[in-house]
Design goal:
Layout lengths: L8 H23 L6 E2 L4 H49 L5 H19 L5 H9 L1 H9 L6 H24 L4 H19 L1 E2 L3 H26 L18 H12 L2
Parallel strand pairs: 1-2
Helix pairs in contact: 1-8, 2-3, 2-5, 2-6, 2-7, 2-8, 2-9, 3-4, 3-9, 4-6, 5-6, 7-8
Length: 257
């Protein structure tokens, strides 16, 4: 069975910070001989508040994430529906260049994929979507029912989906909430460093556990909040939305050219 390391990336990325905090706690206790200022029971309210805030932020970002998961598939469906309509119209009245219209649609898909890969701008993608109007015009000239309205409807859906993508990419869920969560995480770690534990080993385990959980969750929430923020170097993050519906349609469409 192949090990999927991508899902472990946020956890692994948090380990160096956790290790650093554990070493710092060990140095404070054994190096400086400082046992601590407060008992663990005295900081449980702060930890509980941090966990509550993590739950609130996670719930908010997951709503957009679940919506984002549908976008690539819905984009592929919209473009393929336009292609099917064009093929249908050409079968009824073959007085336009079908391969040229397919190549134009292929250019739309390619522009969207390049946008996600940071090789194309929003302006170019919007222009490609706008050019679908010329395809609708060719379909309209066949006089086969309301096929042109089908093309325009899917064009509108595609524009709406891409607009939603750009909004998700540009915005964050309550930026002030992130700031407070980061400060609270630092406060929790700071309090753990000055907490007195009855047993040193138990204390180290608790310090490592809570540090790892808080750092991991902060990283995970930030990743989830930007599901289309694909790195320029092509390395996929744990929470990146998989574009396979668009990629697979693009491959099918190219074979049909």
């Amino acid at each position: 069975m192949k090990l999927n390391l991508i899902k472990w990336k946020p956890m692994i990325a948090a380990l160096p910070i956790t290790l650093g905090v554990v070493l710092l706690k060990t140095g404070i206790v054994h190096g400086l001989g400082y046992d601590g200022l407060v008992h663990f029971s005295e900081i449980d309210l702060v930890i509980t508040g941090g966990i509550f805030l993590i739950g609130f932020m996670l719930a908010g970002t997951l709503a957009d994430y679940k919506e984002s998961e549908k976008i690539p598939a819905e984009m592929a469906v919209a473009i393929e529906s336009i292609e099917d309509t064009v093929v249908l119209a050409h079968g009824f009245k073959s007085d336009f260049d079908l391969p040229a219209q397919k190549r134009q649609l292929n250019g739309v898909t390619e522009a969207i994929l390049n946008y996600y890969a940071h090789r194309e701008t929003e302006e170019v993608v919007y222009k490609k979507i706008e050019e679908i109007t010329s395809i609708a015009l060719h379909v309209e000239q066949t006089k086969i029912g309301s096929t042109s309205s089908w093309v325009k409807r899917e064009q509108t859906n595609l524009r709406r989906l891409f607009s939603r993508t750009t909004v998700i990419k540009r915005t964050s869920f309550i930026a002030t909430g992130y700031a407070f969560l980061e400060v609270l995480t630092l406060v929790v770690i700071g309090l753990l460093l000055i907490t007195r534990f009855e047993n040193f080993i138990t204390g180290i385990i608790l310090v490592a556990f809570f540090t790892q959980i808080f750092i991991y969750m902060v990283r995970l929430i930030k990743d989830i909040d930007h599901p289309f923020e694909y790195p320029v170097n092509g390395r996929v993050r744990a929470a990146d939305i998989d574009l396979f519906p668009l990629i697979e349609y693009h491959e099918r469409a190219r074979r049909r050219l």
